[in-house]
Specification:
It is a single chain. The chain is α/β, with parallel strands linked by helices. It is about 35% helix and about 20% strand. It has six helices and six strands; from the N terminus they run βαβαβαβααβαβ. It has helices at about 35-45, 70-80, 95-110, 125-130, 135-150, 175-185, and strands at about 10, 55-60, 85-90, 115-120, 160-165, 185-190. A six-stranded parallel β-sheet has the order 1-2-3-4-5-6, covered by helices on one side.
Length: about 200
Amino acid sequence: FKAIPPTVLIFNVSYKCDSKCVMCNSWKLPYHDGLTTEEYRRAFGSRLFRRIEYVGITGAEPTLQKEMVELVHIMADHMAGLRKMTLNTNGFVKERVVRTLESIVDVANERGFVFGTRVSLDGVGDAHEDIRRVWHAFERAMDTVRAMRELQKKKFFNFGVSFTFTAQNMEEGDRIYELCKKEDLNVVFSIARYSELAFGNMD
């Protein structure tokens, strides 16, 4: 028997979130800054990560991690075979989100890996707001969608939206599909995951 080095890394960068989703309680979990960038540098310097080809950045809201772009640099430094990186965002604060994502796009294009990012939508209009429990959630997310599509005209990266089926939005899948057809947006559909450790949502 010989252990095979991992090629996929799902990286939860933070439990900090500016949303209060009905299907996720990560915003209630104790937040701490976790590792410092230097500690991350030492961690990713381990041979365990040398053959990573795909990194999926997740969390609560990844763009709230102040060192997010620096962490991408660190991963690129230590993962010579890195081919693709993805990140999902709620898109609520357009200026912060676009600024962070554009910087990651620049790193990806400089280092030669593909970066893909998606704005999460749980429904159209009030349906999205009811699930995220954030004022004007849908309008704010769509503002970010439009800004990222404008950025796509200048820089190379993959972009779209993501929709997660939960008990609260079963009827919204079709509406999101029609919206994405109308707006010519790529969309990925998935089923909600439940984990007490990751999301605190087993209740």
